[in-house]
Design goal:
The complex is a heterotrimer. Chain A is mainly alpha-helical. In chain A, the strands form three sheets. In chain A, strands 1-2 form a two-stranded antiparallel ribbon. In chain A, strands 3-6 form a two-stranded antiparallel ribbon. Chain A has a two-stranded antiparallel ribbon with strand order 4-5. Chain A starts with a helix and ends in a 14-residue tail after the last helix. In chain B, 48% of the residues are buried. The longest helix of chain B is centred in the middle third of the chain and has 21 residues. Chain B has a six-stranded mixed beta sheet with strand order 6-7-8-3-9-10, with helices on both faces. In chain B, strands 2-1-4-5 form a four-stranded antiparallel beta sheet, covered by helices on one side. Chain C is mainly α. Helix content of chain C is 64%, strand content 2%. The longest helix of chain C has 27 residues. The radius of gyration of chain C is 26 Å and the shape is globular. The chains are: A mainly alpha, B alpha/beta, C mainly alpha. At the A-C interface, helix 5, helix 10 and helix 12 of A face helix 11, helix 12, helix 17 and helix 19 of C.
């Protein structure tokens, strides 16, 4: 393997990891405050991608302009649908179960994930370009083509970087800067940290914990929508069930970075993405294990990483930030 | 003979030192009180003794040998405890709660549970008899088949003590056994603690109720800000000016007996 | 619904003698409804179930007849007839109201279906009108009944022989009901059955009968076990259709795995979202040593006992490998690790095909041609006739599975009520307190995980032979057909965590309902997801609540009637 190939694999891994990281922030924030694995968060990511696609398909004006100019509108649409879904899930499915036995919200989350997937599968209002004509279909039963960014890929010292990759990294950087500002400088951000430490004390201190929880769901939803748009642009197609594996990976990233820690989520995402990319790409260069390289096994390596982290460093790379309610 | 010998127990959380070099020894059949203002590190000290926390420094010996690190091993070794904020198994019956306490004194594993040999049946029967006896001892024998969560507050405290006693301890650590009790229940709790000593079990008790502490304890240790301030016979501690100061936060102005203000907390 | 909690009659009627009139009307209405099933309900045989025959009931009429007969029995209870009074320890009125509703809804449903599918009320014949009027009258009269709810003292135990007889009767009755539901031939019949059963069970629940029965069962554990086993075996005799015995065999596999999962989830409170992978591990292990020509290890098949041991051993090994790193850390992580494991199992098996990995499992094609079991010379693939009863291939496997489940129930019940089982529940309730009581929580959680895996592995080795082919896609987190991890979890949660009957019942429902209601088609999963959400809101303790569990979820509601319902519903 040449150095260029190694760099190429690493770059791909970082981009993939940035996407995992964007989703992982939602898991980690929510878990930090309410100790709930929001299994439906992968579906929130999927909804973000579909939201962006809906607006592109149904607003003809967007086809006339460069996709770059349409992006903000697509992102906004994806964000709206993701945030609404995330907040509604919190309000109507999780909140009534607060204080219920531990399994009740987890099972609700699974049910919710299935419902969201099936709603898109059965009823998504789609328009597709077939033979130069836009045709309407209902239900995303096949993979849906996603519009592609125009322009040649960048060449940086032999390493090819797609524009979609640049955009993904851009989302990640902006999101992390924004989060850092939010957590450190704003009242709400500090209140959120307090609520994560100990919700009961925070409540006594006059913090509206319910509001904080809603905000955590909303921020998670917005970042997941950005990840969804990035996913669509990178892979060129989206499916109703793409949230399942992505959610699993993102949760792994959150654990890897230290649950409850937003910076950890992004770091964990990037580490996971790079490991996955190097394992998949790198192993195929080694004769003895050549068969275990390749795309088919990359999910397996991600899982092995999760198990190793739990064995070696169960509190994650950057440490947990969550109230101890053992 | 010394039952418990804790030396220089220190517990740090990041920059905060919750317990600083605390020594405490308990002799056979002794009842030792541990008092101090809220946040003095009493419960943290208990957690260090029972393996819930691993002390940053210091050594804890039980009957001459070092206490193991993990909570279930500590219980097996012979140190049992109750919790400040009652931690029963709420959806198990009262009897089942005590049977879980017997866990370390039974050996029957998966296969003997399936096989149910006469030996298994005998062990199970004996455990049930012992558990019922302990429930009677704690004065809640009539409620063996109710769910733990449906007991009154005082009875829940008693059940927690019975459950801890079921593990056959040589030393029992009680964390605020009379919190939330009325005067009558507190008197019953006092009798129960004395009866436990009567069974040859040494007791360390954290309590804010000074009448209770000075009524049952052979010796009292005072903890403030993670350090042991005074240790001695109840009368000495009661009279100690530093103790009064620690409780009132000001130099003692009203002489001995002022510590009684700590009561009813 | 009777559950409206009204203490007075719902339909007002003149106070004096109201009870007498209403009771007489209900009795008459039920009798006429029963009679109407002997008349034709429509003129054409094109409506499923052939309701055109006079002289005996057919199709959905059987359901109406049975509900009407049960109602008559309850009318007897309302009149205080000796022997029948025991049917309604807490009062006959609530039961009669719910049964009248069951009668009206299930009968009304068929009559409406006749009118709609055949095109209008002209398709009703005099018999239909008689039935319609009779059930409506019964319902109105039942609503006018005065409330006779009362506190029931726990019934005194009767003589042992009588109790044993009652236990057998109850379980065989259950068997007949289950068999009827399983063998319903068309959608209308199945819906009618479900409607009638649903309302009727609710009604009997209010009447206090279940408490009596569960007390009875708790007193007669041995008799109950024997009776349940007999009922299970008797099914093989009364049901000979290959299609239904195949369905029954699959239901049993699913139920067995759900029971294993219940140790992990229900008793120990560990959420395992990849449980179906252990079934897969067992099935692949069984398939590899089965002597299938497509297995890597062809040749003579290993004897069944050896295959079972291998299946269990490999599943336990997988369980320990997954559990050991995970069970030390936060409980919630287990959910995600097991979810990952379930997915990884499928991916690995998919890729061990000799192309993208070493050859072991044939990849996506799976291992087909798994030969039938032969135990002590008894070939499961052949038909056998014993005492004039023919056992087909699926019946053979069905019988084997009944034994497998019997073993599992035995293990579950004994371990659940032992030092180990108590420690599991203690961990579920409060892990820190359990530790402080000397429970080695890590070891016991691992033990629960391993025992659960062993049960799934055992079921898997049998499953490989029943389905004759194992493929990776049979073992997913979620798919439209059971078994998959989400459905298994649902079987446990919807059925009732920590109970024995819960997962078996939940498993049967989850398997049979999609099989019978084809019109759900692609909406099945959507409905499944909604059911999960709604159940967690409305009835989180499941269909068969463990008494402990029920208390945990409905603290306030229960507090009031705690005194009464002391009967142990742990069965």
């Amino acid at each position: 393997m040449t150095l260029t190939e190694l760099l190429q694999l690493t770059t791909g891994g970082v981009v993939l990891g940035a996407m995992y990281g964007l989703i992982a922030v939602g898991y980690t924030m929510v878990y930090g405050i309410v100790q709930l694995i929001n299994f439906a968060h992968g579906e929130i990511f999927m909804l973000g991608a579909f939201g962006a696609l809906f607006v592109y398909a149904w607003v003809p004006a967007l086809h006339e302009i460069s996709l770059w100019l349409a992006l903000p509108i697509m992102l906004a649409a994806g964000t709206v649908i993701s945030v609404v879904a995330a907040v509604a899930a919190e309000r109507f499915a999780y909140r009534p179960l607060r204080g219920a036995p531990r399994l009740a919200p987890l099972i609700t989350a699974i049910g919710l994930a299935i419902v969201l997937q099936q709603l898109i599968f059965l009823y998504a209002p789609l328009r597709e370009l077939r033979d130069d004509r836009w045709e309407t279909t209902v239900g995303a039963k096949q993979p849906q083509l996603f519009p592609q960014l125009p322009g040649e890929a960048l060449q940086l010292g032999g390493v090819t970087v797609q524009w979609a990759d640049v955009l993904t990294l851009g989302f990640a950087v902006v999101a992390m800067l924004g989060l850092a500002y939010f957590v450190r400088r704003t009242r709400t951000g500090r209140a959120m940290q307090a609520a994560a430490q100990d919700p009961d004390i925070a409540r006594l201190m006059g913090i509206d914990v319910d509001k904080i929880i809603v905000i955590a769901f909303a921020i998670g939803g917005a970042l997941a929508a950005a990840a969804g748009l990035a996913h669509g642009l990178r892979y060129g197609q989206i499916t109703f069930d793409m949230g399942f594996i992505a959610g699993l990976k993102a949760f792994t990233a959150a654990v890897l970075g230290g649950i409850g820690n937003v910076y950890g989520a992004m770091l964990g995402g990037i580490v996971l993405g790079v490991v996955e990319s190097l394992a998949a790409g790198g192993l195929s260069y080694v004769d003895a294990v050549q068969q275990f390289g390749g795309g088919a096994w990359k999910d397996v390596w991600a899982f092995v990483v999760l198990i190793l982290v739990l064995l070696i460093r169960p509190r994650g790379l950057l440490g947990e930030r969550t109230g101890d309610r053992a | 003979m010394t039952v418990l010998d804790a030396r220089g127990v220190t517990m740090r959380f990041g920059g905060l030192t919750a317990v600083k070099g605390v020594d405490l020894s308990v002799a056979e059949g002794e009842i030792v009180g541990l008092i101090g203002p809220n946040g003095a590190g009493k419960t943290t000290f208990f957690n260090c003794l029972t393996g819930l926390y691993t002390p940053t420094a210091g050594e804890v010996r039980y009957r001459g040998s070092r206490l193991p690190a993990r909570p279930h091993e500590v219980t097996r070794a012979g140190v049992a405890r109750t919790f400040q904020n009652i931690r029963l198994f709420p959806n198990m019956t009262v009897l089942e709660n005590v049977l879980v306490g017997r866990h370390v004194r039974m050996r029957e594993g998966l296969f003997s549970a399936i096989g149910r040999s006469p030996r298994y049946r005998r062990a199970e029967r004996e455990a049930r008899e012992a558990a019922r006896e302990l429930l009677d001892f704690a004065g809640i024998g009539g409620q063996a088949s109710s769910l733990a969560r449906n007991l009154s507050y005082g009875d829940q405290r008693r059940l927690e003590i019975a459950r801890a006693m079921a593990s056959g301890p040589g030393l029992l650590l009680l964390d605020e056994p009379t919190a939330g009790m009325n005067a009558r229940e507190t008197r019953q709790a006092r009798d129960l603690v004395l009866a436990i000593r009567g069974r040859g079990v040494a007791v360390v008790v954290i309590e804010h109720d000074m009448r209770f502490i000075f009524g049952v304890c052979d010796r009292v240790a005072v903890l403030t800000q993670g350090e042991k301030l005074v240790e001695g016979a109840p009368a000495e501690v009661r009279a100690d000016e530093r103790v009064i100061a620690a409780y009132l936060g000001t130099p003692a102005g009203d002489g001995p007996g002022g510590a009684a203000r700590g009561e009813g907390d | 619904m009777s559950g409206a909690g009204a203490r007075r009659a719902i339909v007002p009627a003149p106070a004096a003698g109201r009870g007498t009139v209403a009771r007489a009307l209900v009795t008459a209405g039920a009798a006429v409804s029963a009679g109407s099933t002997f008349l034709p309900w429509t003129w054409t045989a094109s409506f499923p179930g052939d309701l055109t025959v006079a002289g005996y009931p057919g199709g959905n009429q059987v359901i109406t007849l049975v509900v009407a007969l049960v109602m008559l029995a309850y009318c007897g209870a309302a009149y205080g007839l000796p022997g029948l009074r025991a049917l309604a320890p807490r009062g006959a009125t609530p039961a009669l109201r719910a049964l009248a509703l069951a009668l009206a809804v299930s009968t009304g449903y068929v009559l409406a279906a006749i009118a709609i599918t055949l095109g209008g009320l002209v398709n009703w014949v005099p018999g239909s009108w008689v039935a319609a009027v009779a059930v409506l009258l019964t319902l109105l009269a039942a609503l006018a009944l005065p409330d006779d709810r009362r506190d029931a003292p726990p019934p005194a135990p009767g003589p042992r022989w009588r109790e044993t007889l009652v236990v057998f009767a109850v379980l065989l009755g259950g068997l007949v009901l289950a068999d009827y539901g399983l063998a319903t031939e068309h959608t209308e019949q199945f819906i009618g059955y479900v409607l009638a059963l649903g309302f009727a069970v609710r009604g009997l629940g209010v009447s206090g009968l279940p408490a009596v029965i569960s007390a009875l069962i708790a007193r007669n554990r041995v008799a109950t076990s024997v009776a349940a086993l007999c009922a299970g075996l008797a099914f093989a005799v009364i049901q000979t259709s290959g299609a239904y015995t195949s369905l029954a065999a699959n239901v049993l596999i699913f139920g067995a795995v759900a029971l294993g999962l219940n140790i992990v989830v229900g008793l120990s409170g560990l959420l395992d979202l990849g449980y179906v992978a252990f079934l897969g591990v067992g099935a692949y292990a069984g398939a590899l040593v089965s002597g299938s020509t497509f297995s890597r290890f062809t040749g003579t098949p290993l004897p069944f006992w050896a295959a079972v041991l291998i299946g269990i051993a490999v599943a336990v090994l997988a369980g320990v490998v997954i559990g050991a790193p995970t069970l030390r850390v936060r409980g919630d992580y287990l959910a995600i690790v097991t979810l990952g494991f379930g997915e990884i199992f499928r991916i690995v098996v998919n890729n061990l095909d000799g192309v993208s990995g070493p050859q072991l499992t044939n990849g996506p094609n799976g291992i087909p041609n798994i030969p039938d079991l032969v135990i002590f010379g008894y070939d499961f693939g052949e038909e056998h006739t014993v005492l004039g009863v023919t056992f087909g291939r699926f019946t053979n496997y069905y019988l084997l599975l009944v034994l497998v489940i019997a073993v599992m129930v035995f293990v579950f019940a004994r371990v659940g009520d032992s030092r180990i089982g108590r420690a599991w529940v203690a961990i579920r309730e409060d892990e820190v307190a359990a530790q402080a009581m000397g429970v080695n929580t890590f070891r016991l959680k691992l033990l629960a995980f391993a025992l659960g895996a062993a049960m799934a592995g055992l079921a898997g080795t049998v499953q490989a032979h029943v389905t004759t082919t194992v493929t990776p896609d049979q073992y997913q987190f979620l798919s439209t057909a059971p078994p998959n991890s989400a459905f298994l979890l649902a079987a446990v949660v919807l059925g009732g965590m920590g109970t024995i009957t819960g997962p078996l019942l939940g498993g049967a429902l989850l398997f049979v309902i999609p099989e019978k209601l084809e019109f759900f088609e692609d909406k099945q999963l959507l409905l499944f997801g909604l059911t999960l959400i709604l159940m967690m809101r409305l009835r989180p303790e499941g269909i068969v609540p463990n008494r402990r569990r029920q208390l945990e979820f409905h603290e306030e509601e229960i507090a009031g009637r705690e005194g009464r319902a002391v009967a142990g519903v742990g069965a």
